[in-house]
Amino acid sequence: MDEFKITFFPEHKSVSVDRGTDLLTAALKTGVHIYNSCGGEGVCGRCKVIVKKGDYITEGSGRVSDAERNEGYVLACRTSPGSDMEVFVPEESRLGDLEILTEEIKAKRLAGLYTPVEEIEEEHYKVTSKIFKHGPLSTKIFLKLPNPTIDDNSGDADRLLREIKKHHKEINTIQMGLSNIKRLPRLLRESNWEVTVTLGNRNRTTEVVLIEPGDRSKENFGVAVDVGTTTIVAYLVDLNSQKVLGSKASYNPQVDFGEDVISRIIFAQHEKGLEKLHHAVIDTINTLIDNLIKEASLTLDDVTAVVSAGNTTMTHLLLKIDPANIRKDPYIPAVNFMPVIRASEAGIKINPRGLLMCLPCIGSYVGGDIIAGVLASGMDKTRDLSLFIDLGTNGEVALGNKEWLMSCSTSAGPCFEGGGLKCGVRAMKGAIQNISIKNNSLEIQTIGNLPPKGICGSGIVDIVSELLKNKIIDRSGKIKDNKICQVRDCDGIKELVLVVAEDSATGKDITIDENDIKNLIHSKGAIYTGIEVLLKESGFEKSDIKHVFIAGGLGTALNIRSAINIGLLPDLPEKSFAFLGNTSVAGAKMCLLSYEATDKADVIANKMTYLDLSTNALFMNNYSAALFLPHTDIELFPSVKKLLS
């Protein structure tokens, strides 16, 4: 088999690959992350690279223009080497440093002030950090056992269990495995009968997880993990003091195999596909944990528990469970309520006997991250009707109060994460996140105030709102001639130039065209229609909603007024909306620290009704009406009607 050396620039990283290996796979092996949203199927056209030197074989693609082809552009996923090669990855194809949301439970007032959610109160409602009784997933206790005598001749294991029950009178039964019993006689005598016992709350049963000599009761730590489709966030938590000692975040490297869960489920069916997806997420979690404990001067043995929250597909891939049936009628996951297991069974490197708990899922496309969000928001404790929205590729929505809960997932597509846009990027430095039109000119704000390199999710919402307000586009999304932005024709599609090439980080014009606007209209229409269906199925009106909680990274920069203007969010008083930050990791942390929170998460999952919108007639009937700005029926958006008039 021929082998060729591929060198990627500007990183100047090299790798040797066999003939037939595509450049996207080669880049992944070197740690060079190239933007792609289709899992290497050649559909999205986002993985463009420039061949500087060498022979290659490539498939023709309409995603590469003639002008680009003349400059040496090819799709990395459709190109393989015929010799040693030098390949340049242009700025627009690189996965830059994401702005990953690690903060939990923070509300962003519309005036731009950040206020702890604990301060948002009403007569029957208070969002708090949910004070549950402290009872972590794993607890350490120091015991001084009485020496055995002729009169007190209990067995070593019986003696240990007896002392545990003296300290924890609420425990009725305790389990202890054979491996611990085998090492107990020598350990007790060598430690002079003074030991630290780690107790695990495993599936509502108390288990002796670990026995150590001496007093190590203060060295007990856990990790809460948000396993998102795009990012992974980990908190290191002192299980005694309940303090967060540090947080780390990273890309979910599974993005190299596909941007959304469907493309990853398909990739998992390839040879060793499931194995690759599993190791991508596990290796990242292990790296985050390793970095956290090094900074805190701890060891892996000090970490005795991990709690994970993620959507249903991410949970399956974390555990290396085949997710194939999630996307096949009747859309049944392998497991919703996953028992607590040894973390080592999933490949997570903490104390060898440490525990792993995954928050429960309730359907194929509504998982533990939404259960965590509902738990963290406290909407399950109020009499007021509340709406919880996690804006992302799936667009999960939950509606309810203390009496009932209902949820659904809408196929919003990757638009809210910068995907599906001609110049779209994820929320990274240089991404356009806000835009306004003042004095007949554009004012652009980017993340990090750097030269613009593309448009992220909050940016596209803001842009379309401003274009609509200023009558540069009509309510169907068609671009009109104007004096503010240059309009030009590109293969029969009108586009607006937002940033000229010399002012951009890519050296190319940053534009928005009618297809981009159409993609956003479809995405926002799916979210809004999901909300409509939940309201109609439960017999409530939009005006009955008292609180709207928005979770996730998009919420940190989303302009509520813009979101209402385009018909993404319901037309409600702006004081009704609150941003809660990363509720997935917040809910995971709650369950890590309290068995009461864990029980409550199970109650929420059992109580929540899951609506499958793919077979819901209401959704189909209402969706087309939402494919207008803000809606076909503008009476549903009185404030926007007033604005546009």
Tell me how many strands there are: 33
Shape: globular
- Beta-strand level of the residues, as a percent range? 25-35%
Uncertain runs are 106-130
- Ends apart, CA distance between termini: 69 Å
Q: Work out the helicity level.
A: 25-40%
**Count the helices. How many?**
16
Numbering strands along the chain, what is their spatial order in the largest sheet?
A: 18-17-16-19-21-20
CA gyration radius, whole angstroms: 27 Å
Largest sheet: 6 strands, mixed
Task: Classify the secondary structure makeup into a structural class.
Answer: alpha/beta
Q: Could you report the average pLDDT, rounded to the nearest whole number? A: 88
What's this model, at a glance?
This protein is α/β, with parallel strands linked by helices and 645 residues long.
Question: Can you characterise this structure?
Answer:
- It is a single chain.
- The protein is an alpha/beta fold.
- Among the domains are: about 5-95, Ubiquitin-like (UB roll); about 105-130 and about 380-415 and about 520-645, no CATH class; about 140-215, Ubiquitin-like (UB roll) (Roll); about 425-510, no CATH class.
- Helices cover about 25% and strands about 25% of the residues.
- It has 16 helices and 33 strands.
- The strands form nine sheets. The protein has a six-stranded mixed β-sheet with strand order 18-17-16-19-21-20, with helices on both faces.
- Strand 23 (about 395-400) and strand 24 form a beta hairpin.
- Helix 5 (about 260-270) packs across helix 6, helix 11 packs across helix 15 and helix 13 crosses helix 14.
- The longest helix is centred in the last third of the chain and has 25 residues, at about 515-540.
